[in-house]
Amino acid sequence: MPLTPTCLCLLTRTGADGGREVLLGHKKTGLGTGKVVALGGHVGPGESAAEAAAREVKEESGLCVAPESLTRVAHITFRFPARPAWDMTVEVFTAADWAGEPAESHEIRPRWFPAAVLPFDRMWQDAPYWLPRVLAGERLTAAFSYADDNEAVAAHSVAPLR
Fold it and tell me: What percent of the chain has pLDDT over 90?
């Protein structure tokens, strides 16, 4: 079964305290319901990953971000041996330039989080392995394989993106 091409977009800003913040959201429907996730989703036919990321940000938060303002920071492969239909490749982008104010959608309740204090206890278990590094400016390639419970990371690798 081919891996589903997907994208994530990490919007960042300077918070009131001068620290860096990232926009994440409480997932209300679909894969990851109940978890805090990055904005993103499937790449559509004829769509680049950056175009999909900009579209998903708009659909999930109401924010407008131009595909050309996105920086590709990671390529991640996720495998779920107990649920192969969930297997995916993900292009991860960051952006600090967008327009609008985040608003709740049918899928996501967005919220700004301090980059130094992320809610890992409410996120997918792969997040601590790569998210802080990407937010610190690293560019990565990673692979994660989940255990049969589809919750625990069974194996992982993280390396610099080439």
Answer: 95
Structure confidence by residue, pLDDT tens digits, 84-126: 999 999 999 999 999 999 999 999 999 999 999 999 999 999 9
Asked whether the whole model's pTM tops 0.85, one would answer yes
In this structure, how many other beta carbons lie within 10 angstroms of the beta carbon of residue 1?
6
Structural domain boundaries, residue 114: 4-160
Backbone angles phi, psi at 76, to 5 degrees: -125, 135
Number of domains the chain is built from: 1
CATH of the domain at 148: 3.90.79.10
Q: Per the structure block, which two tokens stand in for 154?
A: 């069974």
Q: Check if the beta carbon of residue 60 is closer than 8 Å to that of residue 107.
A: yes
Q: What is the pLDDT of residue 1?
A: 62
> How buried is residue 22: exposed, middle or buried, by Cβ count under 10 Å (0-12/13-18/19+)?
buried
Nearest-angstrom CA–CA distance, 47 and 132: 28
Distances in Å between the alpha carbon of 67 and those of 54, 58, 106?
6, 11, 23
HSE-CB at 112 with a 13 A cutoff on CA atoms is: 14
